[in-house]
Amino acid sequence: MTTPRPPGNFHSGGMYSILILAMTKRKPAKFSASKAVKAKARERVGQPKPSRVMQSEPRTGRQAKHKPKLEDLLRQPE
Asked: What is the pTM of this model?
């Protein structure tokens, strides 16, 4: 008679455990020259100020696509 296996891919006993399967070594990050230069600049000069969005007036609608008609120009009071 065989012993029942626990559910999943984990084996009971021996060198197998949840911790060994869960913990993997991290791959070292790829070197980037631009990131290294920016890091050096931040050390010397300091962190740049955060950018702010400029307040612009809200658009009140679309501009006229066509030139105004002569009749409309003549009817307008000056």
From this structure: 0.33
Confirm if 16 and 24 have CB atoms less than 8 A apart.
Answer: no
Per-residue pLDDT of the chain (78 residues; tens, 9 = 90+): 566 655 555 555 555 556 666 677 888 889 999 999 999 999 998 888 888 877 777 666 666 677 888 888 888 876
Distances (CA, A) of 24 to 20, 31, 51: 8, 21, 39
- Rounded to whole angstroms, what are the CA distances from 43 to 23, 32, 40, 72? 33, 17, 5, 65
- Alpha-carbon span 15 to 21, nearest angstrom: 10
**Residue 46 to residue 52: CA distance in whole angstroms:** 18
CB 19 within 8 A of CB 30: no
